[in-house]
Request: fold
Amino acid sequence: MNYISTRGNYERVSAAEAIRLGMVPAGGLFVPEKIPAFSQQEINEMKDATYQVIAYRVLEKYLTDYTGQELQEAISAAYNRDKFTHDVIAPVIKLNDNTYILELWHGPTAAFKDMALQLMPHLLVKAINKVEIDREIVILVATSGDTGKAALEGFKDVEGIKIIVFYPKDGVSKVQETQMVTTGGKNTAVVAVKGNFDDCQSGVKEIFGDKEYNQLLNRHGYQFSSANSINWGRLVPQIIYYFAAYVYLLRDGEIGAGDKINITVPTGNFGNILAAYYAYRMGLPVNKFICASNDNKVLTDFLKTGIYDINRDFRRTISPSMDILISSNLERFLFEMTGHDAKKINQWYRQLKEEGKFSIDEETNAKIKEILVGEYATEEETMETIKETFTKYNYTVDTHTAVGIKAYHKYLTKVVDHTPTVIDSTANPYKFGKAVLEALQGKVKEKDEFKILEELKELTGKEVHRGLKGLEEKGVRHKRSCSSTGIRDEIKDILGIK
Reply:
């Protein structure tokens, strides 16, 4: 399996090389040259398989330059009871006859990013060994909250790798920030950026495309890679849990072989729903994808109009991991929907850079609407959904999962659709405890977010995730900050480059 650039500006590379590079050095993202497929019989045969077996069957189709033993070692190291609190890794919880919650937060940092970032470091280390790189890898991460800690946890103290995480100051929850700045490890650095997530993400992506800056790093024995979902090594593990969710439903008799499901994904950067789309292209029976946004509804508007326009106010919300206007993985999706038309991708993304918007052609827009719909939830609707879900089902959801539930309900007001629907639960509710507690019982006077977690536990009876216990007692290890234009200088200072 070879990988090509969405902008047609780079040679074909192996999976290991795509994972090592992170993104296309000349700009653009790596995608598989062709999408492998499962037959319905092969999917049915996974019915009694463990998560680890499902992972192997998905990964072997994409990572063809990794040996079977290498994949088995990576999977075993990533998905086990030391790392995940649930035996099936990503359990499916039934809310009602047509609605199921896919819990993706049982990993060490209580967010869905663990599903990929527990595996990715093992894939990257093996990739480095395959291509015989003699430089130290520097992982650059831009985070809207959850990726940062998950990446830090995955790459902490991995030999031959340094990791630098940039997050928007005042743009993540207190719990998210504390998770990051208390991280240990000799190879970790965390930097608060005075700006929003798009400032962090744009700054990091520009560095990847800066030849002169990369040459400077190379001369000092370093080479960049990424742990964001711009890296194929971050995206491919996410395909696994959509097949797992389907076969779990099959195993439990909730659906029959070949039955279609809907998939609802709360998303900002479009990576999580893109992984679901790749699963669909591989043969997973899907009726509709519901792309759920918060008040930063650039994706909702795009899916309704065909116009992607970031010329709008950026809002800080109670679902901060979705506070994103530039959805990086939309580029991969559009490349697939246009039949790998790099000319269109270059044109649209040049317009986005120059004008802050682009409009896709009618044919591509029509193809997207056949499979994908966009809905969003306001702050008030998100809070109401948290309370309604708890009251009706005695089930506690975080602010992002609530956005997904509300978006699905809005979809149902417009169409009659009884298809069983899987809704991604992307974070443990305790990661956003203050907002969840206020949704359940009204305004919270307590300012200490860690005391709020105890109040939420008393109210819901739900145990605090082990990755969040005792955070307030850990010492702050990372105190760096910079402006959005100072990211390059900050990296040089961290690496000791004059």
Observations:
- The chain has a mean pLDDT of 95.
- Residues 268 and 464 are 26 Å apart (CA to CA).
- The longest strand covers residues 161-168.
- DSSP finds 21 helices and 15 strands in the chain.
